[in-house]
Amino acid sequence: MTEQNLTVRGVSDTARWVAYFRALETRRPDALFRDPFAERLAGEHGFHLANTLPDGNKHEWAWVMRTYLFDQFLSRAIQEGADVVVNLAAGLDARPYRMNLPATLRWVEVDFSEIVAYKEEILAKEQPRCHLERISLDLSDVTARRELFAKLDARATKAVIASEGLLIYFSTEDVASLAKDLSARKHFESWIIDLASPGQLKLMQRTTGKQLSEAGAAFKFGPADGANFFTGYGWTPKDVQGMLKTAAQHKRAPAELLSLLPEPKGNPGNYPWTGVCLLKRQ
Q: pTM for the full model?
């Protein structure tokens, strides 16, 4: 690979980076989840990103905890009757292929056309466990996404939205706009997001985020009021799980970070916190 190919070329490349960590987790005898497709999806470029970006491999535990928590929240929503999963910025997620899902479930993935095409090529011979649809769309196109949300809402009875790894790349105004667009849909009942505190956002911007910013994938969103940010846009936080706390419960937390526990109550502020949150439409 050339030096140029070893760098982040855009936000879509982060999907390969995340898939690499899913592949590492899958190899563990005590894996919290298994993704037999992750290594192929990550490819050589995903491996090199993790091992050449500043701190690219340092926070493997956090990426794994994020995947695990999204798995848990999604499984719970489906058990509670969700008939449609809308995965925004789906990246190289392989959940429709690896999770235990009802065959009647409709799973809709939305992402840039280039990531959709790459994923379809890699998984062309695989069979998803539910009805899977992929849609190429730039979610910053407000008109197009509103049209899509309206169509999906009309076909759903109880939909759960997932936006793993998306919001941090949006400005505060863009997140607010997306939150309002989602809450306007009658059948979009729950939304699973990941979130960083302002303190964690600053740390990320100084390390890996610097190179990502140069590639047009800057880290931007870390609200001071945490998950309560969404209450003004039609959503109520129902379950908030910190990644470090979850990692400690599963004996995955780095020893040097255990001093940060217990996590602060209320808004984390400058405390370096990341978590996964379940929001319910008001």
A: 0.92
